[in-house]
Please model this.
Amino acid sequence: MLLERLYDEDLAQASYVIGCQKTGEAVVVDPRRDIADYLTLAAKHGLRITAVTETHIHADYLSGTRELAAATGATAYVSGEGGADWQYGFTAERLHDGDRLRIGNITLQARHTPGHTPEHLVFTVTDGAFTDTPGYLLSGDLVFAGDLGRPDLLDEAAGGVDTRYEGARELFASLKRVFLTLPDHVQVHPAHGSGSACGKALGAVASTTVGYERLYAWWSRYLADDDEAGFVAELLDGQPDAHAYFARMKRENREGPAVLGPLSPLERIEGEALRARLEADEAILIDTRDAAAVRAGSPAGALHIPGVDKAASYLAWVYDPETEHRPLVALAADAAAAEELRTHIVRVGVDALWGYTTSLDGLELAPAETIAPAELEGLVAATGAVVVDVRNRTEHAAGHVPGSVHLPGGRALWHTDELPAPASGTPVVTYCQSGMRNAVVASALRRAGHRVVQLEGSYAGWAAWERQQVAPAVVTARRT
Model:
């Protein structure tokens, strides 16, 4: 049996290829929308992808189930559980609790485990060449290493009202009914790792075991004591912010993401031709340089997406393909770098990258407006500037600039009504922890017409300045 994990560091997302080497068949579970890695891996091991499936309707990225099935002729399988509101809108075989999917000598058994979402499935994996009992579990967003899938995303991202409580109770029941009935030796392979917004304390290790989680996971004592109320309270406490684009992912994944098929090469555009398109507002530039370079000067209206490592996440924060239809042009070293960027951003349904440029020569570059921590109080007093913390809620709760409004970066573009109207000219002073997220969000708010002033050094810089103000006062008091 072959079991390989393909991991996307950008979205902290894992997908799996499971193959029977005797028959040459393979299934892919929870694939991304860019499918080249799966095709390469299958070819490397002499496998045919005959089935593709997913654990649930994802909120943080677009599923590649339809894409991979179309490219390979594989049969697509999706959950048929969850009730009428959670049925997929595209053609695929439906899986219900207990159904088996056979790949050569390997059997995947679907188990319905609601909680994170109503239709959620996990898959036990049995290698029939050696045993008739499962040795592996693809746990989706039920169990992560050290954590559980959050049950509040339907409230946060799908328009639900207080569904988190029912979801938490369902999660408690799913753990008892399915997860904890498995032998301790069963290896657990989750759909996300550290950094994902699908839980609050995901571990960085790639896998775990049923026995390890039974002994050491934060939730295990509640299950051992049958304490549902305590479990629900701790599970729901301190969950991270849900990005606004999650709602779009839920809708598109339920209905079925558009199949991309083979993509046309990106066009190269430079100099005067690029300047003319940008000035006519016929395209949006993605400035991929680092934050310091962008602060020094970037074309008006450009979106700042630093490199490709977090391109999918950050672009989904600041570009909504449902309301913005202008094509994108990326600053890239060459065609290969531009294609790599496109590979990342299609994972969140941004399919509008049309071309690339290798230089900003000939474009007018405007420096970002910034302010030193020492000058912040004066600006607020003189102009009524609104100070906005774009970090997540736990960071804000741990300490923030006094008087600042919390508007996390992944929601800012969807909640500009909470900011001064652009026509007012009232400054919006933004900060994150060290400056990178701030630069991304600031570029989007400027494009939306706001006068944005970036706090130099962001919160780390402000906190260091504040400590310097306190220290001399303490010394003087001691001397007195």
